Amino acid sequence: MRTQAAVSHGPDSGFTIEDVEISDPRPDEILVRLTATGVCHTDLATKAVLPAGIPAVFGHEGAGVVEATGAEVTGVQPGDRVVLSYRSCGICAQCAGGHRSYCERFEALNASGRRPDGSAILTGQGGDAWSSFFGQSSFARHAIAVRENVVVVPEGTDLVTAAPMGCGFQTGAGSVVNVLCPDPDSSLVVFGTGGVGMAAIMAGAALGVGTIIAVDLAKQRLDLAAQVGATHTLDGAAEDIVGQIKDLTSGGATHAFDTTGVPAVVRNAALALGTRGSLALVALGAGDVGFDVRDLIGFGKTVRGVIEGDANPHELIPLLLDWHAQGRFPADRIITAFPFEEIGQAVAAMKGDVVKPVLTF
C-alpha cells in the first residue's frame, strides 16, 4: 500500500514528504491512519545520530483511526480511535512486574529501525527505510503498530490533544503520578517548561499539590505554566535560584523534576530539595552532573531516573484523558497544530514560543 511519510536522509537534512510503500499488517499488527502526531525532542535527538544516507521515518506520538487488524489481534477493530505509545514485549520480568517502560527488549522494539525479525515496514525511493520507531514511525499518513502500544480511546476524543499523551505528556505526568507521588501537602519544582515539564505541572495540579514551582529561562513559557497549574514561577538564570526555592518551600522542596539534562540545573534541583526529598530525571543530555554526595546522604535525598513516566500507557493515557475532560489537565493550552506538510516549520517553532507542536493530517 502506498502512503506518504516525512523522510529524513541524515542529521543535517530536513524532512521531505515522500511517497513510500507500507507493508500490509501481519497477523499480530494493526494498520492506523494517522490523524495527528506530536513532534518530540526524542525524534530530533535520534535523527541527529543516525548516519547520513539512511532514509528514516520518525514520529512516536501518533493518534488516529484503525483501518485494518491482523487475524490475531483482539480488543481493537477497524474504526476505533487510538493513541499510539511505546512498544513493550509484555512478558519479560519488567513488563510482568508492571514496569513496561523498562522492558528488557525496549531498544530492539523501539529503536532498531525494523521489526523484531529484521524486516522493514516502510520502503522508500532508496530502498528500505529505517522505521518502526517506538513501534510506529508516525511521521506518516499511516503506521503499523501492535496491540501492546495501541490504546483505544473514546469515540469523541480530540486526537490532536491526545497524541502527545503517547510519550511527552506521559513522561511528564507519569513521573509525577507514578514515581514522585506528591500529595496536597507536598511541594513540586519543575525545571524546564517544555511539553514534558508542562505535563508534570498539570499532573501536580490535578493531584492537588499545594506548591508547584516552574523554573525556566523563557518568560512566555513561565506565564503559560502559571495558567496550567504552577503556583509560582522563577527565572532559571537567577543566581540565587536554590535559595528562592527554599524560601518558597519552607527550607526545601519535597519533590523536584528535571527535564533539561543540563548539569548545573540538575545539581541545583538536588540542592533545592529538603530533607528526604526526591528528584526525578528524564533528560538524557547530561552524562555526568557531579552531585554532592554529602548533600544527598546527609539529608536522605533520592535521585531517580525515569523512562516514559514508568507508565503503562493502557492505564495512564485513559487517566489523562479523564482529567482533560474534567478540566484538570488542560493539555490543549500548550499545543500548537501544524499541517503535516509543515513539519519543518513545526520543528523550527520548537526553538521559539511553541511548547508542543502537533502535526495534523
UniProtKB/TrEMBL annotation:
Listed name of the protein: Zinc-containing alcohol dehydrogenase
Annotated family: Belongs to the zinc-containing alcohol dehydrogenase family.
Domain Enoyl reductase (ER): 10-359
Cofactor(s) required, per the database record: Zn(2+)
Keyword set, alphabetical order: Metal-binding, Oxidoreductase, Zinc
GO molecular function ontology, one term from the record: oxidoreductase activity
Keyword Acetylation: no
Keyword Glycoprotein: no
